[in-house]
Design brief:
Elements lengths: L2 E7 L6 E3 L5 E2 L7 E2 L3 H11 L5 E7 L9
Length: 69
């Protein structure tokens, strides 16, 4: 699995991985991961409007960077 989602509260500096159990963690091993970017983008699109106090981003777990679209 190559892609994961990171979240942070708006105004905060630290990002955390979104986990498959619905929580947050700093450990990569517990991150919810997908093989393609599309499910990540869909999850963010479906949930961002309901959670305006949070920032979301997709992370490429292979490189550790935020991929460009």
């Amino acid at each position: 699995m190559r892609y994961a989602i990171k979240v942070r509260e708006k105004g905060r500096k630290k990002w955390q991985f979104l986990t498959s159990r619905g929580g947050l963690t700093n450990l990569r091993v517990h991150a919810a991961r997908w093989s393609t970017r599309e499910p990540c983008d869909t999850l963010i699109a479906d949930n961002a409007a309901d959670n305006p106090e949070w920032d979301f981003k997709v992370v490429d777990m292979g490189s550790g960077r935020t991929p460009t679209r």
